[in-house]
Amino acid sequence: MGLGFIGSIIVGGLAGWIASMIMKADTGIFANIGLGIIGAVVLNFILGLLDIYAADAWLTQLFVGLAGACLVIWAWRMLRGRS
């Protein structure tokens, strides 16, 4: 069933905000939401390749979005040459 559109935005925003604090990224609210949602999509895809299914519950997706957003921030910094 999933979280739904509004739930995904809320969880994505929260995950992106926490990730930006952990990674010390200077991002705004819209970037936080984007990072959280993109991070969740990326990490859910990677987990799917490994035959691991992350439940559609909000807490599970918060952790997946958080880890994914940290991964996206890290990858972006590596591509841009910053550490």
TrEMBL record:
<comment type="similarity">
    <text>Belongs to the UPF0410 family.</text>
</comment>
<dbReference type="Pfam" id="PF04226">
    <property type="entry name" value="Transgly_assoc"/>
</dbReference>
<keyword id="KW-1003">Cell membrane</keyword>
<keyword id="KW-1133">Transmembrane helix</keyword>
<keyword id="KW-0472">Membrane</keyword>
<feature type="transmembrane region" description="Helical">
    <location>
        <begin position="58"/>
        <end position="76"/>
    </location>
</feature>
<keyword id="KW-0812">Transmembrane</keyword>
<dbReference type="InterPro" id="IPR007341">
    <property type="entry name" value="Transgly_assoc"/>
</dbReference>
<feature type="transmembrane region" description="Helical">
    <location>
        <begin position="30"/>
        <end position="52"/>
    </location>
</feature>
<protein>
    <submittedName>
        <fullName>Uncharacterized membrane protein YeaQ/YmgE, transglycosylase-associated protein family</fullName>
    </submittedName>
</protein>
<feature type="transmembrane region" description="Helical">
    <location>
        <begin position="6"/>
        <end position="23"/>
    </location>
</feature>
<dbReference type="GO" id="GO:0005886">
    <property type="term" value="C:plasma membrane"/>
</dbReference>
